[in-house]
């Protein structure tokens, strides 16, 4: 029972955080030159219950995220973010962004240096606090490259935006190698509550060779897999296994977003090609389509090519209903990683600007070789973010 205590504490905190004084929380340190510093955090407690249908899915309840960090900014000039997830023992974004207009008087875009997300699709670039669903869709889990240390440049205009960068390994010392990435989007409609975004993106990764415990250098390897869109399990129903002798990995994406008042649709197609030395290349792909309706009339917010949580208009918060279909195919040639397609329906309650409650029902259908699973799961989350 003690493991349910965080959920109870977040629930009890709702009335206090939903009030008008919540907008001034957390405290900010403001200097005379316009510089502001504030603490940031994202704490999510999850409950998972499964009808496993023979899959090794166990009921659980635990922290999903315990992110804590610091943000420093001077509006129009720069901002710096550093955040660490104490649940996964992983550095999140640690980056400095400079705005050319504030520095030079001319808008040549924004530059970032540090650890950051690569520009590929929507979900991978959406802040963890802002996901409409509790977990990312199958193709995002499998193919998104994650965070890397590097430099990137973003230029946004009324009807289009462009983002490109060059990256290396991450702050944990993992994912050794080099990557380049670019994202281009056309935004013919970009007003509050009225958005149309159509985009393409691509990355090219060249992983470094690995060294085993005996000091022997091995050719790079990669593995493609995805969880069944459940938060507290390590099980993957689809899994390519380890692919060796990797020369490079090419990822490509198509993306679309439509927001019209309380309604929104979002879709992404992702594909990866693993090119190997003296071995057949391997290709996997997947896509998802998601829709949402805010019953209380608010609209999802959009900025810089990404979506974020709606801002509740009333004291009782905003209520959102949503559904998603996702699909992934990891079968290619002799490699039978499996195929999976999932339905997710859910509801979100945004209570003030700092509390979010989520409920998801997931029905998965996965085949790998002779095995066939159709598990179902119910997930609940209480999230405090600032």
Which key terms come to mind for this protein?
Porin, mainly beta, 3 helices, 386 residues, 16-stranded antiparallel beta barrel, 60% strand, globular
Describe the structure.
The chain has 386 residues and is mainly β. It has a single domain, classed as Porin. The protein has 3 helices and 24 strands. The strands form 4 sheets. It has a 16-stranded antiparallel β-barrel with strand order 2-3-4-5-6-7-8-9-10-15-16-17-20-21-22-24. Strands 11-12 form a two-stranded antiparallel ribbon. A two-stranded antiparallel ribbon has the order 13-14. β7 and β8 form a beta hairpin. It is globular and about 60 Å long. The two termini are 27 Å apart. 37% of the residues are buried.
Layout of secondary structure:
Elements: H1 5-18, E1 28-30, E2 35-51, E3 60-74, E4 78-85, E5 90-99, H2 100-104, E6 110-117, H3 138-143, E7 147-157, E8 160-167, E9 177-191, E10 194-207, E11 210-211, E12 217-218, E13 222-226, E14 238-243, E15 246-260, E16 263-276, E17 282-294, E18 301-303, E19 306-308, E20 318-332, E21 335-351, E22 355-368, E23 371-373, E24 376-385
Could you tell me the mean pLDDT? 93
User: Structural class, from helix and strand content?
Assistant: mainly beta
| SSE series | HEEEEEHEHEEEEEEEEEEEEEEEEEE
At CATH level 3, the topology is: Porin
Strand content: over 45%
What's the β-strand tally? 24
Helix content: under 10%
CATH C-level name: Mainly Beta
Largest sheet: number of strands, sense, barrel closure: 16 strands, antiparallel, barrel
Alpha-carbon Rg, integer: 21 Å
What's the CATH superfamily, by name? Porin
Low-confidence stretches are none
Spatial strand arrangement across the major sheet: 2-3-4-5-6-7-8-9-10-15-16-17-20-21-22-24
The helix tally amounts to: 3
Please identify the oligomeric state: single chain
Principal-axes shape call: globular
Distance between the termini: 27 Å
Instruction: Please tell me the CATH architecture by its name.
Output: Beta Barrel
Number of domains: 1
